[in-house]
C-alpha cells in the first residue's frame, strides 16, 4: 500500500508538472501564434484535428482501457490488443487517404490544409504504436515516464510551430511540428518502456476484453460525436473565422481545467480501479479530489475571466481576438461546472459501471445535437457556448448518481473556495475602476486577487493553503 501511495503521489505531481510546463509553454506559443497567424488558420487547424480525432476513436474499441482496468493481464491479451488496434489503424489510414479529395472539396481547404491532414494521418499511425508501452506504465502508475515523453513532445511541437510561424510558414508550421512530435515521442516511449511487438489474436481474450471495452468506448464515441463532430459541423456552418474565435475562446477558458482535471483523470481511473472493493478509501480519495480541485480551479477560472479583456488591451496585435471574448465568458462558466462531472465519471468507470457513464454520455450527446443547431440558427456563434453552459449544469445529476455508490461530502468541500473566489472577484473589479494603465492595472489586480483569496480562506474559513502544500503527502493518502 505504501508503494502504491508513493507511486500515486509521484505520478500525480509529475502530471501536474507536465501540465504546468505545457500550460506555460502553450501560453507563450499561443500568444506568439495568435499574433502571427489569422483566426482562419486556427479554424482550419481545429477542424482537421477534429477529423483526425474521429479516426482515432475507431482505432481502439476500448481495448486499451480494458487492459488498464484488469487486475492481471497476460501476454496473449497484450498481443491481441496490439494486433487488433493496428488492423483498425491501418484500415482507417487507408480510408482517410482515399477520402482526401472529398475533405478538400467539402471544407474548401487550401493545399496547405491537405499537407496538414496527411501529416496528422502519419502522426495517428505513429501514436498507435505507443499504446502498449503506455499501458504498461499506466498499470504500474508510473506516469512520470509518460510525462517525460509528453514534455519532449510538447516542447518540440511548440518550439517548432513558433519558429516556423516566425519564418512565415503559416499553416505548414503545424504540419512540420506534428511530424517531429510524433517521431520523437515514439522513440522515447520505447526507450523508457521497451516492448517487443507481437502479432497475434486470441479470440477468447478478445471477447473478455470487449466486455468492458465496448461500453467504455461507446462513451468515448459519444464524446467524440458531441465534441469533434460538432467542430466539423460548426466549421461548415459558421466558417473557419468564427470557428477560430470559438476555438480560441474555448482553449483559453478551459486552460485551468486542462491543467488540473486532465492530470487527475489520468491517475484517478487506474487508482479507482485498484480500490474497487474498499468503499472507505474511495470516499477519502473522492473528497480529497473535490477539495483540492476546488482550491485551484474556481479562483483560476474566475480570475482568468476577469483579466482577459485587460490582456487583449496591452498585447500587441491581439485586438483581432476581441470578438471572441463574449464566447470566452460562456466557456469559462461551462468549463467550471463541467469539471465537477469528470472525477465522478472516472469513479463510475473505475468501478466497472461503464453503462451508467454511457447513459450520461447518450444524454449529453443527444442534447448537444438538438440544441446547437437550433441555437446556432438563432444566435449564430453563441449557440455552441450557450449549449455547453446549459449541459454543464447536469453535473448535479452526476454527483447525485455517484453518491448512491459512495456516500461522500460534496458541498462542504466546494463552498469555502467558491465564496472566497467571489470576494476575490469583487476586489479585482474595484481595482479595474481605478484610472490605471492596462498593464499596471493587470499586475495589481492579479496580485491583489491572490492575496485576498488566501486571506479570506485563512481568516474566514481557517484554511491555510501553505500548510496544505506542506501536508501534500497526507493529501494523497488513500
From TrEMBL:
InterPro entries: Poly_Biosynth_Transport
GO CC aspect terms: plasma membrane
Chief subcellular location: membrane
Alphabetized UniProt keyword annotations: Cell membrane, Membrane, Transmembrane, Transmembrane helix
Keyword RNA-binding: no
Protein family membership: Belongs to the polysaccharide synthase family.
Full protein name: Polysaccharide biosynthesis protein
Amino acid at each position: 500500500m505504501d508503494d502504491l501511495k508513493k507511486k500515486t503521489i509521484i505520478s500525480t505531481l509529475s502530471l501536474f508538472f507536465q501540465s504546468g510546463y505545457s500550460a506555460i509553454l502553450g501560453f507563450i506559443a499561443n500568444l506568439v501564434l495568435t499574433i502571427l497567424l489569422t483566426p482562419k488558420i486556427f479554424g482550419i487547424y481545429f477542424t482537421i484535428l477534429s477529423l483526425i480525432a474521429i479516426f482515432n476513436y475507431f482505432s481502439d474499441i476500448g481495448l486499451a482501457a480494458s487492459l488498464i482496468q484488469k487486475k492481471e493481464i497476460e501476454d496473449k491479451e497484450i498481443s491481441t490488443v496490439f494486433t487488433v488496434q493496428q488492423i483498425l489503424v491501418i484500415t482507417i489510414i487507408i480510408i482517410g487517404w482515399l477520402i482526401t479529395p472529398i475533405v478538400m472539396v467539402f471544407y474548401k481547404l487550401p493545399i496547405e490544409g491537405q499537407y496538414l491532414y496527411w501529416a496528422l494521418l502519419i502522426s495517428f499511425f505513429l501514436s498507435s504504436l505507443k499504446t502498449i508501452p503506455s499501458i504498461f506504465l499506466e498499470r504500474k502508475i508510473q506516469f512520470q515516464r509518460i510525462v517525460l515523453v509528453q514534455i519532449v513532445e510538447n516542447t518540440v511541437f511548440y518550439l517548432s510551430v513558433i519558429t516556423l510561424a516566425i519564418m512565415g510558414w503559416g499553416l505548414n508550421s503545424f504540419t512540420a511540428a506534428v511530424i517531429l512530435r510524433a517521431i520523437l515521442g515514439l522513440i522515447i516511449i520505447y526507450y523508457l518502456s521497451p516492448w517487443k511487438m507481437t502479432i497475434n489474436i486470441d479470440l477468447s481474450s478478445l471477447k473478455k476484453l470487449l466486455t468492458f471495452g465496448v461500453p467504455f468506448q461507446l462513451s468515448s464515441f459519444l464524446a467524440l460525436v458531441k465534441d469533434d463532430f460538432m467542430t466539423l459541423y460548426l466549421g461548415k456552418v459558421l466558417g473557419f473565422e468564427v470557428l477560430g474565435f470559438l476555438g480560441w475562446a474555448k482553449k483559453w477558458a478551459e486552460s485551468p481545467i486542462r491543467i488540473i482535471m486532465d492530470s487527475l483523470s489520468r491517475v484517478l481511473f487506474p487508482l479507482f480501479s485498484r480500490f474497487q472493493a474498499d468503499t472507505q478509501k474511495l470516499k477519502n480519495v473522492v473528497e480529497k479530489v473535490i477539495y483540492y480541485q476546488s482550491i485551484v480551479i474556481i479562483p483560476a477560472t474566475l480570475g482568468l475571466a476577469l483579466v482577459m479583456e485587460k490582456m487583449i488591451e496591452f498585447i500587441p496585435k491581439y485586438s483581432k481576438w476581441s470578438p471572441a471574448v463574449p464566447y470566452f465568458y460562456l466557456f469559462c462558466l461551462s468549463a467550471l461546472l463541467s469539471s465537477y462531472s469528470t472525477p465522478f465519471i472516472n469513479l463510475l468507470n473505475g468501478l466497472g459501471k461503464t453503462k451508467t457513464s454511457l447513459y450520461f454520455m447518450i444524454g449529453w450527446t443527444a442534447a448537444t445535437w438538438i440544441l446547437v443547431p437550433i441555437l446556432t440558427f438563432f444566435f449564430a456563434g453563441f449557440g455552441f457556448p450557450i449549449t455547453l453552459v446549459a449541459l454543464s449544469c447536469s453535473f448535479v445529476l452526476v454527483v447525485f448518481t455517484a453518491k448512491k455508490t459512495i456516500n461522500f461530502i460534496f458541498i462542504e468541500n466546494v463552498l469555502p473556495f467558491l465564496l472566497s473566489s467571489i470576494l476575490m472577484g469583487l476586489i479585482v473589479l474595484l481595482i479595474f475602476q481605478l484610472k490605471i494603465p492596462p498593464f499596471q492595472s493587470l499586475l495589481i489586480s492579479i496580485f491583489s486577487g491572490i492575496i485576498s483569496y488566501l486571506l479570506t480562506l485563512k481568516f474566514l474559513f481557517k484554511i491555510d493553503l501553505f500548510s496544505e502544500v506542506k501536508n501534500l503527502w497526507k493529501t494523497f493518502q488513500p
